[in-house]
Amino acid sequence: MTKKTILIAGSLAQRPRIGGHAWVFLQYLLGFKRLGFEVLFLDSLDRDMCCGADGHACAVEDSVQLRFFLEVMEAHGLNGSFALNINRGERTIGLSGAEVLEKARHAAFLLNVMGFLTDPGILAAVPKRVFLDIDPGFGQMWHDLRLATVFVGHDHYVTIGENVGREDCSVPVCGLEWITTPQPVVLDSWPVSGEEPRYGLTSVASWRGPFGPIEYRGKTYGLRVHEFRKFMALPKLAAERFELALDIHPVETNDLAQLRDNNWTLVDPLAAAGDPAAYQEFVRGSRGEVMIAKNLYVETRGGWFSDRSICYLASGRPVLAQDTGFSRNYPTGKGLIAFTTLDEAVAGVGEIRANYRDHCRAAREIAEAYFDSDKVLSKLLGELGIA
Fold first, then answer.
1. How far is residue 84 CA from its own chain's centroid?
2. Stretch (H or E) spanning 319
3. How far is the C-alpha of 200 from the C-alpha of 145, rounded, in Å?
4. Which domains occur in the chain, in start order?
5. Rg, the chain, Cα only
6. What is the pLDDT of residues 26-72, one digit of tens each?
7. pLDDT for residue 2 is more than 80
8. Which residues, in sequence order, are bridge partners of residue 202?
9. Which of 140, 302, 307, 336 has the lowest tally of Cβ within 10 angstroms?
10. How many C-beta atoms lie closer than 10 Å to residue 241's C-beta?
11. For residue 45, how many other CB atoms are within 10 A of its CB?
12. Are 137 and 169 spatial neighbours (Cβ–Cβ below 8 Å)?
């Protein structure tokens, strides 16, 4: 019996040397393969996006973007399971356009991450189009403000904002019926770390990220920087080592000075997480994670929970996370500690320090109970009506 194919579309090639971002897609690709499906990853790359190692523009063939993409596919057994559209249909690397269309016609469904795929031929060919929202609040507000129409043309709408649609969540539903889901982690790819931590409490993050703040219904919804400033004093007050693989521009001089003055150690994000393997090593070598969320996630109470945090949990590393409303969905207090104030964050650091081994065991138990890709993706398939 021929295996059914699941098409997954997303932007990996455009964001090279960001190991954590690559794992967002790998969890779905490897997770669906574990369930017996063939997978086909669809991405695109244009010459105006491409640069060499020196940062200068170059041909697609010589670009860090293409090299990174191909290395990720090969390292995770996905050769023959991708099609990279070059220069808006000029050619493809991997499966040909005709092969993609044939796969699409007989696919179980397309999982279109943030509506990345817009190719009308593939969208028309595939029998079921599923929008996957991994930035709950941004797309919905853009849609409501008529700034973007990323939802158009899909049959089902899935969000990792597990509180979306609830009365106390301010993410607009845009007249759509949302299926909510945790993010998956492939546990076999993230075994418990048996090593002693080399780093303190860590995180991998961008200071601002690709999106700007949103003005919506008289309120400004901000970014991570706007929340992080509230917790600048955490390392000094908690007397713990904090190390951030932080993507922050050198022009942020005031914030950089504040980070240094408050004993945050900044680690080169390329060295710590420049590819999926380095990212794994950094996470597994950490004492635990401190997760400070984007202001939009905090203010909307959408229940967003970081794809990064589930990797720490699976590795048996406790997570101290700013609450976005996720505490109504997962057990907190052991392995996963939620905080809303600086005092609560300081207390959380002390609790992890005092009972570290217990928190490590509880972290893995939470990953197994709530984020195991076998469970998460099987449930999602059921919600989509797919056996």
1. 21
2. strand 319-322
3. 42
4. 5-184+373-383 (3.40.50), 187-371 (3.40.50.2000)
5. 21
6. 999 999 999 999 999 999 999 999 999 999 999 999 999 999 999 99
7. no
8. 243, 289
9. 307
10. 15
11. 23
12. no
